[in-house]
TrEMBL record:
Pathway: Cofactor biosynthesis; tetrahydrofolate biosynthesis; 5,6,7,8-tetrahydrofolate from 7,8-dihydrofolate: step 1/1. Residues 3-162 form the DHFR domain. It comes from Flavobacterium sediminis. Gene3D superfamilies: Dihydrofolate Reductase, subunit A (3.40.430.10). This is Dihydrofolate reductase. Its EC number is 1.5.1.3. GO terms for biological process: dihydrofolate metabolic process; folic acid metabolic process; one-carbon metabolic process; tetrahydrofolate biosynthetic process. Key enzyme in folate metabolism. Catalyzes an essential reaction for de novo glycine and purine synthesis, and for DNA precursor synthesis. Belongs to the dihydrofolate reductase family. It catalyses: (6S)-5,6,7,8-tetrahydrofolate + NADP(+) = 7,8-dihydrofolate + NADPH + H(+). Keywords: Kinase, NADP, One-carbon metabolism, Oxidoreductase, Transferase. It comes from the Bacteria.
Length: 167
């Protein structure tokens, strides 16, 4: 069965970014993002898409926007809702929801898994990740990484799965 996976990096206060940019540089988080999302469909809002210098290699981009006639490079798809984004992906393919804040909020009900990098700091932001409610999500894996010469902040990779209603 296909998984709909939210993937994000958020601070302790759920901050995602400010002025359409990330507020930290964590090379190991980028490596994990690339390893998990390569060769898959990635769903994002228009502002997230516009924050990239060019489309990410080896991924099919699906951009959600209300703008009519929004122009995207070849190989990218434009849709108007999270439901439409999911419907254009092949049924057997896992897909990744990569932001921003509003898209994450809309996808919490349909997602089956969350791959979250919890950055152990609090930062000023204008975009936030939705609260992960323990009655809806179960933490199944975590891996802590201390700060070092390449990583200004310590962080933890967290994997959550949607709770079964019978739990």
């Amino acid at each position: 069965m296909r998984e709909i996976i939210i993937i994000a990096a958020a601070a302790e206060n759920n901050a995602l970014g400010k002025d359409n940019t990330l507020v930290w540089h964590l090379p190991d988080d980028f490596k994990r993002f690339k390893a998990l999302t390569s060769e898959h469909y990635i769903i994002m809002g228009r502002k997230t898409f516009e924050s990239f210098p060019k489309p990410l290699p080896n991924r099919t981009h699906i951009i959600i926007t209300r703008q009519k006639n929004y122009k995207v490079p070849k190989g990218c798809l434009v849709v108007s809702s999270i439901e439409e984004a999911i419907s254009v992906c092949p049924q057997e393919e896992n897909l990744f929801i990569i932001g921003g804040g509003e898209i994450y909020k809309q996808s919490m009900l349909v997602a089956t898994k969350i791959e979250l990098t919890r950055v152990h700091t609090e930062v000023e932001a204008d975009t936030f990740f939705p609260e992960i409610k323990s009655e809806d999500w179960k933490l199944v894996e975590e891996s802590f990484h201390p700060s070092d010469e390449k990583h200004s902040f310590p962080f933890t990779f967290l994997t959550y799965v949607k709770r079964d209603l019978s739990e």
